[in-house]
Each structure stands twice: as C-alpha cells, then as structure tokens.
Amino acid sequence: MFGWKNSNAAAAKLPSPEPSDVPAPEGPQRQDELMRRWIAFADMQQRVIRTLVHEIQQTSAVVETEADNLSSRFQNLAICAGQQTERVESLSRLAIGIEVDGEAVAIDRIAVLLEETLSDVVEKILMLSKDAMSMVYALSELSANVDRVDSCMEELNKINRVTNMLALNARIEAERAGTAGAAFRVVAGEVRELSGATQRLSVDMATELKAVTEGIADGHATLQRVATIDLSQNLMAKDRLQVLMEALIRRSGNLTEVVADAMKEAEVISADVAGMVTGIQFQDRTRQRLEHVVDTLRVVDEALDELKTTTAETLDVPVAETPGDNEWVKTMLDRFTLGDMRSRFVAQILEGRQPADHVEAVAAPSTTGTVELF
Amino acid sequence: MQIQIDRTSGQIAMSGEFTFTDHIPFKQMVTEIFAAPGKAVVIDLSRLDFIDSAGLGMLLLARDEAKKTHRELILRGPIGQVKRMFTVTKFNTLFKVEE
A-chain residues within 8 Å CB-CB of B52? Predict the structure, then answer.
C-alpha cells in the first residue's frame, strides 16, 4: 500500500511506518488492519496536502507582492534611465557647440569664423604697415624736394643782391654823367625798385618755405611714431588664438566621443531595465501555474476524502490514528531548514491546527532587507 | 640690421633685426638693386632674427618695386620669429618663399 516504501531513496532516509515487533495478523483481520492504516495514512496525506496548498498560496502571494514591488521599482528605474538618456543627449548637443541668438553654432564653425576675422585683421595690419612705410618714403622725398627749393631760393637771393648792387652802381654813374645821364638814372631807379620787390618776394617765399619744411618735419615725425608701433605681437595673437582654438576643437571632439559612449550605455541600461520590467511581469504566469498545482492538490484531497469515507464504511471498528504513522512525517519535517516553515508544518500536520494568515511574517525578510540563514 | 649685397648674383643677405629704423638703408638697397639689370632678386633671411610690422611693410614695398621692373623677389630661408610671422601673414601667397 505504501508505494514510497519501495523507493530506495525513501527507504534510506525514512523509517518504516510499520512496527517491526508486532506480529502480523492473518486473513480478514489483517486486511482490516491494513485498511485502517491506509485510512490513517490518507488522513495524514490530506493534512500534508492542505498544508502544502496553504503554503503555496502564501508563497504565491508573497512572490506576487515582491514582484509588484520589484516591478514598481524597475519602472521608476526605467523612468530615471530615460531621463538620464535625455540629459546625456542634451550634454551631447552642448559638447558640439554653443547657442548664439537662438542658433546653434558648432565649435569648428567658431574656429573658422575666428580664423576668417583674424586673417582679415592681419591683412589690414599688413596694408597699414605698407602704406605707413610708403608715406614715410614719400615724405622723405618731399623733404628732399623742399631742401632743393631752399637751395634755389638761396641762389635767387644771391642774384638779387648782385642786381641791387648793379642798380646802385648805375645810379652813381648816372649822377656823374649829369644831365646826360638823366634817362640812365631813371632806369637805374627802376632796376633798384625791381630788386627791392624781388627781395621782399624772396623773404615771403622763404617764410612760406620754412612753414612747409616744418610741416613736413612734423608729419614725418608723426608718421614715424605710427610706423614704429610694432604690430608683430598683434599678428602673433592670431597664431596663439589658432592654437587655443585647435585645443578647444580637440577637447570638444573628446567630449563628444565620451558623451556618445555614455549615450550608448544609457540606451543599453534603458533597454535592460525595460526588459527586466517585462520579465517581472511574467510572474503572473508563475502565479497561474501555482494555482493549477493548488487546484490539482485539492482534487487529490477530495479524492482521498471520498476514498477514505468509502473505505471506512467497509470496516466494523472506527479508524483511530496510530502513533507510528506520524514518525515518517516527523522525520520528513526534521529535514526542513527553515524554522518558521517547520513550525507551521508541525502545527498544521501533526497538531491539526488551522493555518494562520502569516503573509506579512513570510514577506518580512524582503522589507527589512534580511534573510534567514541556515 | 646688416645688409650685404652681392651685385653679381643679385643676392642680398640680411641679418640681425629688421625694424623701422632700417628704412633708409633698405630703401637705398632696393633702389640700387632694382636699378641694375637682372632677373630674380633673392633676399637671404637665414640670419635674420626678428622682423616687425614695419619690416613686413618694407618687404611689400620692395615687392611692388620688383613688379614695376618685372622682376621676381624671392625670400629665402626664414627661421624662428621671422618664419612664424611669414606663416601668420601668409607671406607665401604674396612672395616666393624658399625654405
């Protein structure tokens, strides 16, 4: 009758439910005895089945609660991962360039604009330097021309002095000639007047020429100050700015690469979290499977109940539980490593108590973050 | 700045620092070298340590003089600060610059 007795594994670990020192009855008496023992065993099986049903239901409820918690947490994690991905995307846009007047300008475009502007400045500095030197040369030439005009004026003064002297001599000779030199005297007077006018004009021209010379000298000095301003440092500023921009472009490139990697990882994390949420939602299938198991056990329980009643009706003497029938259950319960589970099984199977609602007690370890060690 | 002129080969060697203060001897040299017949004029800059913006302006005026006489002005062997100034101002687009 006890099929498990013929199992090698059960035989090695569980004691025989039959007492070895009692002599075996014979005939109909033996059959009655075996039937009573079967009924007692079926009774015990029912207790085990009901305990198992209750345990499965409680465990299923705990798993469902925990799965819901986990699912909720993973959904929060998925939202955070999505937000993180958006932030990384935003960072990616920041790494590429800057925003000016609502328009995104890439770093490399800034470098091009800067290079164009600086090249224009350099070109203008070169033109300025060239024109300044050209004016210096032109003023030097003008100064030389003025010097030559000054020499001419000097020569003109010499001629004028000689002319004046000739007019004076002619006047002396005219006086000596008396009335015969009257006409000559008039000519000498006219020449002297002409010499005086030329002398006055020469003085005026010298004054004007002096002013021109001083103006040229002042202009030359001013231009020299302009031309001697060394703009080479300003030119080299372009060189330094180009080096800085190249470094900035390299930094931007590196940052873009890092952000791109972070973006990929953020997407992978989002996908993984989404997958985990989906996976946890499949817990519903586990609950359904456990319900099927519970349903099956209940059917077996009902069948045992029915068979037990039918068998008891064939017996004259009522069936009483024998102490030996509990031994194999006790031995089985000794193998339990979870203390609280063992206590529940002892109370319900051996002591026949009704199962208590202990969902919170079972679920406690996950909320407190501890587990029972064995 | 020191200027050495080789009239037979049309080569000029400049050394030291080329600044505004050198404009008179440089002008004389340019006038002299382009007055003489010849083809290309080479200015050796391999011993020139420094050039300022006025020096660059004078080289551009020398280039204009070369164009007037249909001659080529070649700048040879710039080094250090002079080479960097030529790079920044893209002088190689205005002159034939030989390394």
Answer: 230-232
Residue with the two structure tokens 């004389």: B28
Tell me, yes or no, if A236 comes closer than 8 A to chain B by beta carbon.
yes
Is residue A230 less than 8 Å (CB to CB) from chain B?
yes
CATH number of the domain at A132-229, please?
1.10.287.950
3-class DSSP assignment, residue A367: helix
Q: Is A235 on the interface with B (CB under 8 A)?
A: yes
- CB of A216 within 8 Å of a chain B CB? The answer is no
From chain A, the residues in CB contact with B61 under 8 A are 130, 133-134, 137
| Span A178-236, pLDDT tens digits | 888 888 888 888 888 888 888 888 889 889 988 988 998 888 888 888 877 877 777 88
Coil, helix or strand at residue A337: coil
Give the helix/strand (H/E) hosting A32.
Answer: helix A27-96
Q: Could you tell me whether strands B73-76 and B96-98 are parallel, antiparallel, or unpaired per DSSP bridges?
A: parallel
Tally of domains in chain B: 1
pLDDT tens digits, residue range A142-171? 888 988 988 998 898 888 888 888 888 888
In this complex, the residue of B54, B81, B88 whose CB is nearest that of residue A227 is: B54
The answer to whether residue B44 scores a pLDDT higher than 50 is: yes
CATH number at residue B82: 3.30.750.24
- Collapsed DSSP state (helix, strand, coil) of residue B25: helix
Cβ contacts of B12 within 8 Å, gap of 6 or more: B3, B4, B5, B6, B29, B33, B41, B42, B43, B44
CB contact under 8 A, A133 and B88: no
Cα separation, B15 vs B3, in Å, equals 7
